[in-house]
Amino acid sequence: MSHEQDRELTAPHGTGGETVDVRLGMFGVKGSGDTSGFGGLVAPVVMPGPSPRPYGGWFDEVVDVLAELLEESGTGFDAAIEQVVVDRGELTLDVRREHLVEVARHLRDDQDLRFELCLGVNGVHYPHSTGRELHAVYPLVSVTHSRQLRLEVAVADADPHIPSITDVYPANDWHERETWDFFGIIFDGHPSLARIAMPDDWPGHPQRKDYPLGGIDVEYKGAHIPPADDRRSYS
Amino acid sequence: MTTSTQGFTEEATAGAKSFEATGGDWSDIAEEAVRLGEERIVVNMGPQHPSTHGVLRLMLEIDGETVTEARCGVGYLHTGIEKNMEFRTWTQGVTFCTRMDYLASMFQETAYCLAVEKLLGITDDIPERASVIRVMMMEFTRIGSHLVCIGTGGNELGATSVMIHGFNGREEILRIFEMITGLRMNNAYIRPGGVAQDIPPGALEAIREADGKIRTYVKYLEDLLLANPIYKGRTVDVGTLNLAGCMALGVTGPVLRSAGLPYDVRKAAPYCGYETYEFDVPTSTESDSYSRTVLRFEEIYQSLRIIAQCVDRLQAMGPGPVMVEDKKIAWPAQLAIGSDGMGNSLDHIRHIMGTSMEALIHHFKLVTEGFRVPAGQVFQRVEAPRGELGVHVVSDGGTRPYRAHFRDPSFNNLQAVSLMCEGGQLADVVVAVASLDPVLGGVDR
Q1: Quick check: helix, strand or coil at residue B98?
Q2: How far, in Å, CA of B221 to CA of B215, rounded?
Q3: Number of Cβ pairs closer than 8 Å across A and B?
Q4: Which of A122, A148, A235 is the closest to B399 by Cβ?
């Protein structure tokens, strides 16, 4: 059985938050004929899951106001927001992509929310989170209220489309181009979604986990040092 | 339909007669343009142009001397630092992110370390002394960065002595850095859990001495620039960007403050104990290149004010730990200068090689494997010299960052070039870009 198949079969479902990977064995050594038993270790990688109310501090107020606005517009809070995660003192709203632009507009415009600045978008690639491989994370900042929260949108690798929020936050123009360049997430409605860091004709999207780091081994005093992604990894 | 790097479609540019100038005499090109009766010329400025702060490429459509369209091309310095960080331990990550915006190394280091500490949940365990040292190093970096900004900005206008004084002032800061961290740039000094080592004996005296020297150079620069009719003629009302423009484009830092909004992350979301320091956030409402220079001068004085408070605190505090107490996270060794350069201190080597097998195992495990960080994600903001620097760090519970992304302020601010330059003079493009103070190492990462 291949390592990849192994992961799929042993992935537990519905524990805490999203299970993004399953770690097998110890120290990252594979195929060494391990007889210690440590090779049989299975450790799921679970991201922080939805938080119960009260969220604490101003988090409740912001979520309440947003819920009210979403109900008013007819979208509905549950239809737009998948889950609310409070972790390490930071608020994350997992948004369904269809409603991302509306949520962003509410967060920017309502006087009790006023998240005037969007500090770009960052992609994260979870190749083993089936159907939710690509995540886009938008940090928002409210200058008026000195607050900071995060929107997170998850899409499938097979359908990597997210609506562009450049209409709401024009500053996201280059950031969305960067995320397209590095992750292959297509931001629908972006004025010109061209690569920004890599050359125009570059094949692939370098920040994805299946894209190798590359490099050559280096000889130093007779020993060969392998490139970084061929070295022993401990995870 | 093919799309070029800048998003100009071929269809959009197909009808226009554009002249590709890749060297040769400017007069030949101008004559050819006259011969063809075409007023509109597309000029490629950079990426190897001395006034582009590195490798920024500006595509300018000019009509006579007026810029009708300006677009930026970036990516010439992309080195995959974020990708590389995913293949190194959490501690080694510092060595990489310090090289992004190479004029603001300490800010990347601090932002990254604060993010890792937040992921580990040890934010409150960082020794006070380490936080004070971090603040001091960041403020020194801010001064150095502003001096380079003002100095190179002057140089780009043809005032070489401005650059010389700017770099001379920065030299004093780099001496302090060399004394404290062992390196002048790319220090990798701030580490998850604290800082690499305590400040050496005599450092506080050297800092007090440097304070006066820095003030001298800053005074030279102020005398040279602020009342200079040529400098004012070149910068007043040039490269304006009003508050609405700044907010729409997410522009932060001195450019935003020159438009009147006193937004500073050090005040809005304090970190490293900034709420306990006394300093002001200077603003102005002119929103032009000149006022940004004035603000940078004022910020230098505010930074010196913070540094003086740091020095007093370090003096009053006396020696103490500069690394978190948790031995599973703290780097096991203190560094020392040996005959062959800087390395682990000999006492430590003697201890692990000669007396304690367990200490050797501990050292080996922590240095080669690193520590594990519980799964999750955080976003940490700091006020870098160019604006708001954000770090998004994701952990999957392993010994390496799963993803580390830096929202570099110059990357974001460069988007404002079109707005600041279009409709202005060609020569003012240089001034406008210099007032944004982009550092391409940070833009492209």
Answers
A1: coil
A2: 10
A3: 145
A4: A235
What pLDDT is stored for residue A8 in this prediction? 43
The partner residue sitting opposite B250, judged by closest CB among A118, A148, A150, is A118
Q: What is the ipTM of this complex?
A: 0.87
* pLDDT of the residue at A13: 39
Helix, strand, coil percent values for chain A (each to nearest 5): 25, 25, 50
Q: How far is CA B111 from the centre of its chain?
A: 12
Number of helices (H), then strands (E), belonging to chain B: the values are 19, 10
The whole-model pTM stands at 0.88
Looking at chain A, which residue has its C-alpha nearest residue B83?
A207
One digit per residue, the tens of pLDDT, for chain A of length 235 reads 344 444 443 434 334 788 888 877 766 666 666 666 666 778 888 888 888 888 888 999 999 999 999 988 888 888 889 899 998 889 999 999 999 999 999 999 988 889 999 999 999 999 988 888 999 999 999 999 989 999 999 999 999 999 999 999 999 999 999 999 999 999 999 998 999 999 988 999 999 999 988 888 999 888 988 888 888 777 6
Q: Which residues of A touch B445 (CB under 8 A)?
A: 197
Q: Which domains does chain B have, with CATH numbers?
A: 81-326+371-413 (1.10.645.10), 335-369 (no CATH)
The amino acid that residue B322 corresponds to is V
For residue A63, which of A49, A77, A48, A76 has the smallest C-alpha distance? A77
**Closest residue on chain B to A207 (Cα):** B83
For A59-188, CATH gives: 3.30.460.80
The domain ranges of chain A are: 3-47, 59-188
Mutate one of A26, A29, A88 to test the B interface: name it (highest B CB count within 10 A): A88
> Which positions in chain B touch A49 (Cβ < 8 Å)?
none
**Beta-sheet strands, E only, within chain A:** 19-24, 42-46, 81-87, 90-95, 117-118, 122-125, 134-142, 147-155, 161-163, 186-188, 218-220, 223-225
Half-sphere CA count of B178, side-chain side, radius 13 A: 8
